[in-house]
Amino acid sequence: MKRKSALILMLFVIIVVMAEGSLSFVSKAPVYGTNDSIPTDTTVSVPVDTLLRRSAAAAARMKRDTTTMDSLELAIYRHNKAIDDSLALDSINRSRKSGIDSPVEYSANDSLTYEAESGLAHLFGESTVKYQNMDLSSDKIYMSLDSSLVHATGSIDSTTHQLAKTPVFKMGSDEYESDTMAFNFKTKKGLITEVYTQQEEGYLTSKLSKRGANGEMFLEHGRYTTCDDPHPDFYLALSRAKVRPGKDVVFGPAYLVVADVPLPLAIPYGFFPFTKSYSSGIIMPTYGDEMSRGFYLRDGGYYLALSDKVDLKLLGEIYTKGSWGLSAASNYKKRYRYSGSFFASYQSTVTGEKNMPDYMKTNSFKLTWRHQQDPKANPFSTLSANVNFSSVGYERNNLTSLYNPQRLAQSKRTSSVAWSTGFSSIGMTLSSTMNLEQNMRDSTIGVTLPGLDIFISRFYPFKRKKAAGAQRWYEKISMSYTGRLENKILTKEDLLLNSSLSKDWKNGMSHSIPIKADLTLFGFLNISPSFNLTDRTYLNKIHKSWDTEHQREVTDTLSGFYNVYNWNFNVTATTDVYGFWIPNRKLFGDKVQAIRHVFTPTISYSHAPDFSASRYGYYKKYMKTDLDGNVTEVEYSPFQNGLYGVPGKGKSGSLSVNLSNNLEMKVKSDDDSTGYKKISLIDEFGLGMSYNFSSKIQPLSPLDVSLRLKLSKSYTLSLKGSFASYVYELDSVGNPRLSDTRTYWERGKIGRFQGISQNISYTLNNEKVGNLFKWLRGEKVEKKKKAEEEDDDDLDDLDSNIDKEMERAKHVQSKESSKAETDEDGYLAFKMPWNISLSYGVTMREDTDVKRFNKKTMRYPYTFSQNLNISGSLRISDGWNISFSSGYDFDYKKISMTTASLNRDLHCFNMSCSVTLAPITSYNFSFRCNASTLTDALKYDKRSGFSNAVQWY
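Above: the chain's sequence. Below: its structure in token form.
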């Protein structure tokens, strides 16, 4: 009984103690204002864990004085405290796991309120929230710090009554614009309405979007377009889509909408890549029809991104009537080393029907290779290649070439591969080339393989290494060396691979050693003697004889090493004579300061022996006997088939006289920094003539006359003519021939004018016409800046009749937004840039038709050949470009090749049309999307077939 009473008493004490302990834990929470005000435009850094501070305060209030406790109360107190601390720690950990673990910076331009009890912050007016790599800006933001949620939206504009200052969300490289947005800081997930984001060249919008933790977007009722206008010209309507920023977008059923009109063009699914790096993928083909080959799919295939330095594009084409083709194109580049491209194509063309007379099957191919070495790679060694080789029928069978008149009409093609290296220590350059020339009209092909050149720059063999005093005359003697080794063939295209290296190929080596000295006599007379030695080495020569029995010439080829050389000596004397004339100030004023005349006479004498002498062996003779027994002597050269020819016949001792004149005027100028400028009156007026003392027949050469005038800074007029010295006389039959000795000069007449050829071209544009009118009105004409002139010069170097400014302005409207220019009266400035280029060529020569010879005047009549070319361009407005080119041949009285093109930039699309009106008629129409991601999918091409009879009505 006593034991039970003791146990009951002890249990009662424990209950009382526990009750007191639990009462001590109850504490009234501090009262926070429900609408604490914070000053506007203030950035606040919120502590991470408010629960931790509350727990610490509660723990401070839980402390009791343990010295007043007995052992039983102390044990119970410590036990309960350990349990309470564990529970509090678990609560803190749970709060940290579901809350914010980094500082949040937020600000508002208008006002900011914070509810401490609920942990909700309200931001108004250009508000921003920054958390880690997240940046959110909007007009209104509501943020719960304890639950990691943020909600943003715009506000209604009082004037437009539309939602404005909508949320803009940025996280890393992702950026979204939307009407409203809800986002969780911790999970990085969000729900967005009316989202608008850009991915590479495309723009995505959707009614409702969900953002995943990894940044992917799930769209509902979305749109994809490459148009940057808020109201796009076209878009793909997507029912469902998943977007992986920077990678791709995959969508379900979609259809095309143009100008807000749904089109019956739908696809069940698809995707668009967004990657910035090279990636492999399918190339969409072009579809169409061609009369002789049928319907086709062409330029479709696969693109291989092999690496950052090289790629490969494989394309194919197929026609319903049996034609097909394959091509491979590759570009490669290694920075600071080299770059280039490679293209190979093979096509099989079938026309007509089998078992019919018009059936034809042809195979053709094309190979191009361009290689360029970076100058920084190796300053002493370079390798370059420009190969353009194709079979004769390739361009005629290639559909792309049919609409390029220049390429289709090209009759000759050249290819070359060159390598060179230099040895600067000895001034030697070693280079090797491979050349190939094609004649597309008769399938003739010429190949040089290899071609080796050795060049040693000029050096002075007698120059002292340590010079002391004045330079001696023999130290001015210089010499150089040029050597060339070649192996050539000229044959038909189909016979090249079957040719014989020893019989069909021509080979040889040449050496040239010029020795020269530049001397000065009496301080003003420049004397330049020179000696030139040319040597040729051949591996074979020919021997000719006459076969009397068969009445034919017999040619034998003898192999071996044969040397052929020649030399000549030349000495030239020249000087400059200056004359000045100062005009009378009373008559001419002080504008003209002086006129200078520079007279440069040059006299030269050259000598060369007669290398047709028998001791040289360069010319041989054989006796020809015909059927009647008549014997004639035939002369030939055993080396006449050599690569470098054979020295000429006859001795030469020629004296040449050239007179050159230059006339300049010095005038005052405010535009020049020196106050003066020079004006060229006659840039050059020259006369030249020579006399060969060693020739007994026509030793006097024609009189050559040249005139060069600088009409403007950009145009120089050059005229060259020739006056024959010897008169015409009649032979025994009555036909005209040149006299061997009688000249016009001995009759006191000027030589017979033989003709002249001149080409004049000029470009006229709206700026030049405007400046002309300003100059006529007495207004000052503003000069172009130097940078603009250089830019224009670079563009003019391009062989094209397209207006370069138009090409730059094609996409200006969509990429630049500038204020419209106005004139001096405040009205909109009228601008319609245009230019016209005119080129006129005329050739005057003697018509040497014997039937037209005038025996009274003893002259041939003159004939003229003329041609006129015109090209121009016009930009009606931004995006409207028109260009044309044509010409007229006065000899054939026909219009030359005439082409015209129209280009229209439609913001998101580009429309182009080109026509060829003469001599053949064809057209080419293209309408396609500007964006590279859709240009192969959204396009329409229409072309005339090469066999179509295009008629214009």
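The longest helix spans residues 71-98.
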